[in-house]
Specification:
The protein has 295 residues and is an alpha/beta fold. It is built from 12 helices and 8 strands. It folds into 2 domains: 218 residues, Spore Coat Polysaccharide Biosynthesis Protein SpsA, Chain A, CATH 3.90.550.10; 71 residues, no CATH class. It has an 8-stranded mixed beta sheet, with helices on both faces.
């Protein structure tokens, strides 16, 4: 993989940090780097990172310590600005990477010289969490043989969640050329990853074990509020608006936009009554909702 920068935002994940750290560091090549963005944690995350970095003795690990919490999107953006690798990946600090996976992905990139790699995410739940995530079965050879636009149109039909930024390893210069950054909203990955698909031209699907995603009851991805519903609708609109400039990806963008609207509707069912009523009023005034969900 030429060189890789792995950006890892950290906020109050002290009890998971060592597992995350040890899953990645032994896999690094000399020209790779890991950038930890310690986002003003109130637990012992910063001290834990300092100890882990000191004990491992490697020079290609960087710690950027923020004095105040700036949020996940800003932390990732700081990591993007700091990254020096030819490729970039994102990892959440409560998750971990399969041993040996990075060298396999390196081989894929060297062999096919692709702009991005789409990877497999395995979900695992903590003992007190009643959630599950099972990666769908895919025809890897069929998908990898498709033209670029057809690849994403087909893969969107499979149920593979295309939103998480941690699913992608991509060329850093593409992110820089298009100024692709994370917005400070709920589900910030969704619009970021949709745009990434539009900006890249070549892709490989790597479907051996790679990313292990921890399902936590207190994580940002499980929280629900009226503001999150608003953001989900806004993301759906933003993705839909990209169709005019990228008509070759129309079916993919329609699928992603429809997914965001359906996700918003599902979230409404989890809101308190007063907030749910406000959210339902949003639907009633939104003509695009009916176009996407009734078509």
């Amino acid at each position: 993989m030429k060189s890789l920068s792995i950006v890892i935002p950290v906020y109050n994940t002290e009890k998971y940090l060592e597992e995350c750290f040890l899953s990645i560091i032994p896999q690094l090549k000399d020209d790779d780097e890991v950038i930890f963005i310690e986002d003003g944690s109130t637990d012992g995350s910063r001290e834990c990172l300092v100890r882990l970095i000191h004990d491992c003795g490697k020079r290609n690990i960087r710690l950027i310590a923020l004095e105040v919490n700036m949020g996940l999107s800003n932390a990732r953006n700081i990591g993007i600005e700091a990254a020096k690798g030819e490729y970039i990946a994102f990892v959440d600090s409560d998750d971990y990477i399969e041993q040996g996976a990075l060298s396999q992905i390196d081989n894929e990139i060297r062999l096919h010289n692709c702009d991005m790699v789409v990877t497999k995410i395995n979900g695992f739940a903590e003992a007190d969490v009643n959630r599950s995530y099972l990666a769908p079965e895919l025809n890897i050879e069929f998908l990898n043989a498709l033209p670029y636009a057809a690849f994403f149109e087909e893969i969107a039909k499979t149920g593979l969640g295309l939103g998480p930024s941690v699913r992608y390893i991509c060329r850093k210069d593409i992110i820089d050329r298009f100024g692709l950054r994370f917005e400070n909203i709920h589900d910030e990955d969704q619009i970021w990853s949709a745009k990434l698909v539009l900006y890249c031209k070549t892709v490989r699907l790597f479907y051996d074990d790679y990313y292990h995603y921890r399902l936590r009851g207190d994580s940002l991805s499980t929280s629900c509020s009226f503001e999150r519903v608003q953001d989900l609708f806004a993301i759906g609109k933003s993705i839909y608006s990209l169709i005019e400039d990228y008509p070759e990806h129309k079916n993919f963008l329609l699928s992603r936009s429809r997914h965001m609207y359906n996700k918003a509707v599902s979230a409404i069912n989890l809101l308190p009554q007063e907030q749910a009523a406000r959210a339902e009023a949003l639907i009633a005034s939104d003509g695009l909702f009916y176009i996407l969900t009734k078509s």
